[in-house]
Amino acid sequence: MLALYYYPGNASLLPHMMLREIGVEFDLRLVDRGQNAQKSAEYLRLNPNGRIPVLVDGDLVLFEAAAIALHLTDRFPQAGLAPAHGTAERAEFYKWMVHLTNTPQAEYRAWFYPHEHVSDEAAAPAVKQAAGERLNRMFDVISEQLGEKTWLLGERFSAADLFLFMLIRWGRGMPRPPRSIPNLHALAERVLARPAVQKALDVEGLKAPIF
Length: 211
Ligand SMILES: N[C@@H](CCC(=O)N[C@@H](CS)C(=O)NCC(=O)O)C(=O)O
Description:
about 210 residues, Glutathione S-transferase Yfyf (Class Pi), Chain A, domain 2, globular
């Protein structure tokens, strides 16, 4: 039995889109952030960090969206969300998954939660602004690397494209949103056109503008 603990639009969106791409049955369990349920004793037993998402796969309880995503590619290789093990393409896939999680995704914590990075609340806006500027530079590099390719890995779609799509979406309220970079916009449109992605967005109740 698979169960994904989610909140609409949160980092759970990556594994949610993947589960829809895979087409496997799973339970979708809302973590009610309105009630701070991610910090409840019950949820902290699943993820002691009090963050969303968590995937339960039988006896396995997994936190960290990127780890969940990598696990899903291994568990359901037939879905083709990652290249074959041991290939150069697989290594490129790891590069993107790790880069996206430990660089832009981590930076978004400072953008969305600047108060966590200061002892003086008055400094929070400056922290947010600096995080936005670092994110701009990160998206510029990603855009250069993507170039005119269809997907991050070239002609082959992978979970890394779903990850990038989620991160482009998160930046929609930034002064210079990632969608303003033409090739990132085009990639996000291609991801958005996928029926599995449409289904995940629809079930989470996410409405346009998506990114
Ligand atoms: N590195 C973690 C980050 C997860 C994360 O920051 N989740 C956010 C939502 S996108 C969250 O739970 N926020 C609520 C909180 O921090 O209390 C992962 O990828 O799973």
